[in-house]
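User: Hi! I have a protein structure encoded as tokens and I'd like to know what sequence might fold into it. I'm fairly new to this, so please keep things simple.
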């Protein structure tokens, strides 16, 4: 049996502010309690990707990010690559 030995490290000088703090806490708790459906909504530029990067680092689990077009997919890839460092992927 193989063992997952990866870790997601948040690499940002920014700190969560405003509603991001509660969103990170609630969405993280939802993941840990196996909530079937969760939604993160926000206006453009509100920090949704930063919020998700914080959640990914907290729960330390791989994620599948789905985008409705290639341009947004490329933008998300770039932003997540900037915000998260993957350590020890096996």
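Assistant: Happy to help. Inverse folding works backwards from shape to sequence: for each of the 90 positions I chose a residue that suits the local structure. Here it is:
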């Amino acid at each position: 049996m193989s063992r997952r030995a990866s870790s997601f490290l948040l690499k940002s000088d920014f700190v969560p502010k405003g509603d991001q703090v509660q969103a990170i806490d609630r969405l993280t708790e939802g993941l840990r309690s196996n909530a079937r459906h969760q939604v993160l909504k926000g206006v453009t530029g509100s920090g949704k990707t930063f919020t998700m990067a914080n959640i990914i680092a907290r729960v330390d689990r791989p994620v599948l990010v789905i985008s409705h077009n290639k341009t947004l997919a490329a933008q998300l890839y770039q932003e997540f690559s900037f915000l998260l460092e993957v350590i020890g992927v096996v």
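A useful reference point when you look it over: The first strand starts at residue 7 and ends at 10. Feel free to ask if any position seems puzzling.
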